[in-house]
Amino acid sequence: MNTSDLITTAISQTFRSKVRTTLTILAIFVGAFTLVLTNGLGTGINRYIDDTVSSIGATDVMTVTQPSGAGVAAGGGPIEYNPDAIAAGPTAPPGSTVVALDQTDLDALAAIDGVLRVEPTISVNADYVQFDDGTPYVTGVGRLVAGQTIQLAAGSEPDDSSGTPEVTLPLSLVEPLGFHDAESAIGQTVTFGITDAERRSHTVEATVTGVSEQAFAGPTTTVTPNQALTDALVEFQNIGVPAAEQERFAQASVFFDPNATIEEIDALKDRLADEGYTGTTVADQLGTFTAIIDGIVLVLNAFAIIALLAASFGIVNTLYMSVQERTREIGLMKAMGMGSGRVFSLFSLEAVFLGFLGSAIGAAVAIIVGTALSSALADTLLADLPGLTLLAFDPISIATVILIVMGIAFLAGTLPAARAASADPVESLRYE
Questions:
Q1: Strand ranges (E), 351-414
Q2: Rounded to two decimals, what is the model's pTM?
Q3: 233-262 residue pLDDT tens
Q4: Backbone angles phi, psi at 85, to 5 degrees
Q5: DSSP string for residues in 20-85
Q6: Were both Cys, which of 69, 193, 299, 359 would link to 127 (CB 3.0–4.6 Å)?
Q7: How far apart are the first and last CA of the chain?
């Protein structure tokens, strides 16, 4: 009996007892269905993180600061005031400060082995944003760090090469400013108010080029300016500020080789640390998010594996019963010259086929149910998180699940297959 005959025979014999086979397949189906859904959950959430949260910088850029502490000493008491410390920024924990970077620090960073270039991050402030003579609203100004992108609801990102001020508004400011929707805001002119160090007020006008989607952390009123608008705001906010103070930065972007390995990046962090700086990459900032999601998915997958292990006992039972019922048939096959290896392969193929049927059906149903559920949630409970596909299915992941289930089925079928292979042909032919 050649390989093709073995496969054909295994498939035909699988449905010899339809009820028993169907129940076994259903048990496998439950485990595979759960496993595909949980993997889809992890894929969907991680993709959303990649699209929204991970757009905080390029993979070849490191944010560098000089830590100063959080206002409390290690023992819980106060620490000495550091005149060189400034606020770490809006994304840092409350009270966190860093030692301001100046041109000397930028030169020192540029001289560190592995650093290609250094760009300071300029802090920009604005009092409010207003459209026509409508109500002014408090706003923040968030410059894009190197490699950062914006998830847009309409329009395009502001052009840094343009000589005129341009801005991208957050979706949360569209209706309050008086626009009907995101599309209607594109091309309109908004006014920013800013107060200088001498407490005098100034205004700067900018053209709206785009509207950004709601951020992962929730609604925000932070706008994104182009270089021309940034320069205009910085010029006004620096009026009355000593020249030395204007060259103080909370952080800087350090560019390194985009093909650098993890070990090389870690070595660069160590060299920065030796000079008194702290470097943080995009991967570092996303580590907590991805670790939590992967942990949840791992726990859910564990329950699915338990279901599959339970199903494996069903496979063992099904094949043991099949061996028992086909004892004389096995004896006849061996008497006609079929080797023990072929007999073992025949029953192993039956087990693998059971695993394939259960996992393939489970995966197909999981994709259908998951896609429908994800679409329904996107329009209801998750409507405030645009762009989130809660359950996303990766073909490679699905194929891996099917192969894993088939592997479990094969292992479950080895005992019955081994029993069939070791059967004595004479005794089997005498079996009643």
A1: none
A2: 0.57
A3: 999 988 988 877 777 788 888 899 888 888
A4: -85, 140
A5: HHHHHHHHHHHHHHHHHHHHHHHHHHHHHIIIIISTTS-TTEEEEEEEEESSS-TTSS-----TTE
A6: 193
A7: 26
